[in-house]
Amino acid sequence: MHSKIYSATTVGIDAHLVEVEVDLAFGMIQFCIVGLPDKAIKESKDRIKAALKNSGVRLPERAITVNLAPATLKKEQILFDVPIAIAILQAAKQLDLSDEFIHESLFLGEVSLDGQIRPVRGVLSIAHSASNFGKKRLIIPKANTQEASLIKNIEIIGVESLVELIAYLRGEKSIEPINSTFDLHLDKIQKHPLDFEDVKGQLQAKRALQISAAGRHNILFVGPPGSGKTMLAKRLASILPPMSFDEVIQTTKLYSVAGMLGNNSLLTHRPFRSPHHTISQAGLVGGGTIPRPGEISLAHCGILFLDELTEFNRCTLEVLREPLENQKVLISRATCSVEFPSSFLLIAALNPCPCGYFGDKKKCLCSPTQVSKYLSKLSGPLLDRIDLHVNVPAINYDELKNTNFAIKSSSEMYKDVDAAVQLQENRLPGLRNAFMASDQVEKYCKLSNEAEQILKLAFDRIGLSMRGYHKILKIARTIADLQASDIIDRFHIQEAILYRSLDQKLQ
To answer: Nearest 5°: phi and psi at 54?
Structure first.
């Protein structure tokens, strides 16, 4: 007696179809699972035996062979308890599912010993790919129905126990499919709780953040303790454009695979990740025996804030270089290679010296050797990949108490950002200035004669690399977009050069 039920698993954030085949044969009673399962999946036989018994279903006294196909794909998540149990019952003729129903349905779920069906990771990724597999229906744990219901045109059936599922499959109980709730969730998106109007002074830093938000430029803050670097960084999300449908789904898929959705079925705000400086390379980039996304992937479509940058291990920082350029990270293991997206906006902050007061009104106690050693953790190639370098000095008492000048709120700053983003969309749909290729830079970054002369002078004096040269042009293009200018003029290029000179001063 043989049966086949369809399920799926995830590799990275991509879903892969898995056929759960069960064969019942006469002979010595045994339960064998093949098809490259990991240890947790091999233990499914014990969970399923107890779950079926406690659900009032007698396991057939046969030699049970379960095959998870394709056998070349390693299975590493506890997704297959439910499909294996249903395939066994179908093979034992205790269920009579039609071929059409089987071919249209995907089963997922982990069972407990008392027959309850527990939630699993990666359901959103599988739901997102279900139509590509030719499936119309997902039968999943009830706790996962909210995240699965983000995908339209898929019938979502949520079940809490094997008893309920068996009754549904036998036609003894009706379960209403869950409707898509994506539009409902969008209606509930709230305004960002932090606002730039709370920040006194630091006009240059705010201007740099506005440029960063408009063109997706990475930014480095250098300043003494208490100058407001962290406060500024946390408010950048309040002027970033809202997430698109694809960004919402892709980010939520990452958190679903990582098992970090919690009670949130949808991530509608851009992520803000701020790992501690003691983080390991695997924690930052991702890794493990079963590759899991790291902080740079969890910050996908959002912000990665690295405070006290020089306190991070230098080797840990160097692994950021490729993801900053490629917007993805490839984690290779002996058994597989997994690719995670990592298109994040980097904000880094550091003190200028060990005591933190080099160049400040408060006296610095560090020797030149100490300052040099402190900054040596920042390599030239890493600094070259950070577009905007901004000095954030301590504010004085007059700036703190001055109420005569208007402080721009996040909503006012966002108006200019939104206009600049629309210009970029019209120019290159879906591409921000920071990610323009070399040929696109040459085509769209047109300079006036005065701007050309200033850039030529800066190229020789600062000693720019080709990457630095292109970075200046991209920044200048964003500054011009903020002012709705087609041509990059003298004052645009001057401001862009200002943001690229700090790495030379540090070195």
So the answer is: -75, -10
